[in-house]
Design brief:
The protein has about 250 residues and is mainly alpha-helical. The chain has five helices and two strands; from the N terminus they run H-H-H-H-H-E-E.
Length: about 250
């Protein structure tokens, strides 16, 4: 269904009015027909046993179907407006009344205009019966019936467009069918939160040694003197390692 550029009523004898009227008419007819058919079958079946009960049930079924058809008119019209313009209609009673009275007025005008041809065709058919002229009159009656049906559908579609244009005036039409058919881009993933790590405390620098550690002992069990690089060292029980040449002594902590 192509979305119009603006929301405005259709012309009466237009293809848009015919399509809109057919959209509503056949949907109401398909939903209501089973109710009418079921009530007629049940009523006829019960009339053989009890004509009063059968007639009552048939009348109740027909009334229920008629009431349901009236309730379907604003609902289906709202669906049509949403499919065409992108907006549903509100106030179902106002929608039903706006379509009903316009359709009735047009149907009455059409009935008055076609009354004369109908009377003439019916008179010729009655007068000439099964003759060729009577057959032409029968064909004319059938064509007039189809014309009345077409006018009713056109009137319904035209009334739908008038009600819709009145209620949606000031709105810009959108294309809901196209919007619903467009692929939806997948949502972007949430950004991974960046956790700031606490700074790792560094160990405090160790105090520098007061003196350079003495080199390892030689094969003879003496330590090399860090001052004169000789191995003339001995270890005292009190002062520790000391050099006999330069006088170096091992520092005590």
């Amino acid at each position: 269904m192509i979305t119009p550029a603006v929301i405005e009523p259709f012309g009466f004898f237009t293809w848009d009015s015919l399509r809109a009227g057919w959209y509503l008419s056949w949907r109401v007819f398909v939903r209501v027909l089973p109710v009418f058919a079921a009530s007629a079958v049940v009523g006829v079946a019960l009339m053989k046993a009890s004509p009063a009960v059968g007639g009552l049930l048939m009348s109740m079924g027909l009334c229920a179907g008629a009431i349901w058809s009236l309730m379907l008119v604003p609902k289906i019209t709202s669906q049509w407006a949403r499919a065409l313009y992108g907006y549903p209609l509100e106030n179902g009673l106002q929608v039903w009344w706006g379509i009903t009275w316009r359709s009735l007025v047009v149907s009455l005008v059409a009935a008055v205009i076609m009354a004369v041809p109908n009377v003439l065709a019916l008179s010729v058919k009655t007068a000439y019966g099964e003759t060729v002229l009577g057959g032409i009159a029968s064909l004319a009656l059938s064509l007039l019936t189809l014309a009345n049906l077409a006018v009713s559908i056109l009137a319904t579609g035209w009334a739908m467009s008038r009600v819709t244009a009145t209620q949606l005036s000031g709105f810009d039409p959108i294309a809901p069918t196209l919007a619903e058919s467009m692929p939806v881009a997948p949502p972007e993933p949430d950004p991974v939160p960046v956790v700031e790590r606490a700074p790792v405390p560094r160990p405090a620098p160790r105090a520098a040694a007061v003196a350079t550690a003495p080199p390892p002992a030689s094969a003879a069990g003496k330590r090399q003197c860090p001052k004169c690089s000789l191995y003339e060292t001995e270890r005292g029980s009190v002062i520790g390692w000391y050099c006999k040449i330069c006088g170096w002594r091992e520092s005590r902590r």
